[in-house]
Amino acid sequence: MTEAATQITSSIDTLTRELEIITHNLANASTTGFKRRCNAFSKALDAQQGDAETYSPGTIDLNSAFDFSQGNLTQTGRTLDLAIMGKGFFVVETPAGPLYTRNGAFQTNANGQVVDSMGRTVAGESGPITVPASVGLSGLIVSAEGQISAGEISIGKIKIADFGDDQSKLVPAGDSCFVMPDKDIRPAEPENAVVKQGYQESSNVKIVDELVDMVMVTRLYEANMRYVSVQREASSSITSVAMG
Amino acid sequence: MLKAFSTAATGMAGQQMMVDVIANNLANINTTGFKRSQINFQDLLYVKLSQAGAEVASGITSPTGLEIGSGVRASATVKVFTVGELDNTGRPLDMAISGDGFLQVTMPNGDIRYSRDGALQSNANGQLVTATGYAIEPAITIPTDAAAVDIGKDGTVNITDASGTQSVVGTLQLVRFPNPTGLSNEGDNLYAQTEASGTAVTGTPGENGFGFIQSGMLEKSNVQMVTELVNLITAQRAYEINARAIRAGDDMLQTATTIGR
Questions:
Q1: Does pLDDT of A54 surpass 50?
Q2: Which pTM was predicted?
């Protein structure tokens, strides 16, 4: 009976955490470049659908990883709204080292440098990218490779980092960014990333899927609790018999 | 208590802010020179329950960590400075900037503000002013004997007097900022320079990437009604779903409290 009690406690803890993951995904349904966290149910589902390469059925656990699948592209028309189609991340420079993000809602700062919405410098292939004062922002053209130019003037190339299969090792740093904790893993040149100008990548949270998971979590929680009350009744009747 | 409650609450607050921004965009759908705002969200910090790469048994490291996020926050509202549609009015003093640039406006206290609203007027002294009556900088005065006024593509203000002689009375100048999204919104279609926007760069219309002046036209708001309505529906649904998540958490707690009975 104590073993069952331990199992129930662990299962209830897991379900509570599961709900927290789902809520965080839902809260970020409108966050540009957000990648949803997988939870146990969606992993189990993926495994069933034969996506065995990523999650083999035997290893379903709650060590939730990110689902790095492509989000929909939403047109905004801003010249510095960039979205990546395919694998890869924009690189944002911070004093603590580079951060990687799929949120390409960029702007320029007071010095004309390309920065993200938090004001952190966006990395270019050769250092920060500065838009010269002689160029209007509406005249900026960003090519599919991330090359920024205005008419004849070449301004710089946006750096795109591709971690290939190692991207599952990225750790969230908040503010739409990821950090690579393993210093030995260096990003490679992107292979099939296409930069789209005037678009933002929407969050890849699928509201209906999260809702279904949420209903399952609540019901499983109820079932677990039900088991606890049954046990309680059983033990109380045993004690009442024993006590006479 | 469940962390899910506060996480969902950040989601609801974020969506509510999005509705506020959309409402302001829609309210200004007919405001000359209005630029729509766009709200950017970012995810909040993660609570690390276990570190990726931590050793779980000798020689075995956990492939992924376990971090639980704590919701969302609005990081910025960004003014989208795309050019709105140009509307032909035929009024000689109406002008639109097709491209980058702002007109400079002198406030009564001498401060300079910036605007893209080109519905200009001439006041009692013949000076060019905005629809609200603030003077355009550099000051341009149209003589009282002018029979016709014409604003050229390069910003030159030409007048034709009663005898048919043409003369130039001034040139409109435009300014541009390294970071126009950093300008502060002052209402009345006016913007003010801030630390974030950088210093204004002055130039002649049509040169160095500045837009041309289109006289007899007004720049309409760049708000697209369909886009805003779609965003509104999305925001409303997302709000509902977050509220639903709070209810799910509440249901779970309720189940927990009833087992004690």
A1: no
A2: 0.82
